[in-house]
Input
Amino acid sequence: MILNRMLTMNDPLLNYRESVQASARRSVKNALPPFMVRRFTLLTLRVLLTTFAALCLASCRKGGAGAKPADVDYYTCTMHPSVKKQNPTDKCPICSMDLVPVKKREVTASEGPSVETSHVRHAPDASRSTLHAQHEAGAARESEAQPAEFTVPVERQQQFGVTYATIEKRAFTHAIRAVGMAAYDKQRHWDYVTRVDGYVKKLFVFSRGELIEKDAPILTIYSPDLLATQNEFVDMLKMRDEAKANGNQAVLQSTDKLVESAKQRLNLWNISEKELAALEKSRKPQEYLTLYSPFNGVVQDIGVDQGRKVMGGDHLVDIADLSVVWVWAQFYQDELPMLRKGLPVTITTSSYPGEKLNGKISVIDPFINDAMRTGRVRIDVENADLKLRPDMYVDVELTMDMGEGVAVPVPAVLPTGKHNIVFVDKCEGKLETRFIELGRKYGDYYEVKSGLNETERVVTSANFLIDAEAKVQGALKSW
Output
């Protein structure tokens, strides 16, 4: 009875139950014998004690160590963020992993303008200016917010498959590959055309691709005009000899001028100095004009046949020296700034697998192809064995020394569009998110401009899982 009275004083529900039970007892007392009434009273007391003990036990459990802290909003799984639980002892229903707490967000002036605005309606102007200052301060804090440290237990990192790499300085080399086409060297190419009217008397080469040595005859041309000019030249030489013998200086000066004029005319008609010296010595005009090769080369084209009439300007023979060839290669516009004149280049072709030819950049075309966004580069290549032929496709490769610098592995960088993020190891499961500035990419590494130092360790695998963990723990508030 004393216990019942104590419960009645502290709990309205028990007070109501007590009144109901008293009414029931009175009804039972009037209807049952005395010994039955005593048994009923003891049974009722036992039930009330059991109910009170259960309520006390539930209350103790609710306020014990397993209860959700006040600053925790809910519990979630880092692998499945859609899972939200209120009990910290629950497991993820998808992967059965332990859940992690998600802290409640603190509402700032910038995040909750509607709450503050309701007070501003009845506040003086000073309060409005204060609220405006709070908005600006909140925006400034958010813009200056930097990533923070967070903790991922070592066991969980092992489950994720996290690996690390140490930041160190490396020697950077950059390789560029392109395709090109071989072409003859225009400085080693000769295109013969007719300078006098006449007839092709004889050909010494007959087809494209024939090899020809320097000073070897190519063809002979019969020209009446050329023969007449040679006769005039011989007559001028005789007149000069007679003037010298007679000592007539006036006639000698005049004939000297005529001899030089005839000699220049013959030079313009492809008569070499050697042939003129032989003509001046023999005084016998030649009926045929013979053209000779100026270098060792290959016949590229023949435009005439024996006996054909030719006129001034007609195409006769093309000869090319292929001991040195050009390779015109196409490079993308972002690769052109790295090229310079004299840079060594390696040339390969599928026609000769495993063989490499060496060349050097000689010309960088300043104009860009508007369709392919590429620029042409001319490479001079030694071709003594004539392995490279005009119009042959080749592969071009350049390897450049780009100096030394701090390098980070490519898999360690998590690009977000606005920032490049890495996760730095702080030992014992602690990680730090870090914004870094990158330079060029060299193979499997990026050059680090700022944000990382030597000997630091960064995560190189499972970055997205670590990123999800950082998001849950609030280490990365925004990208």
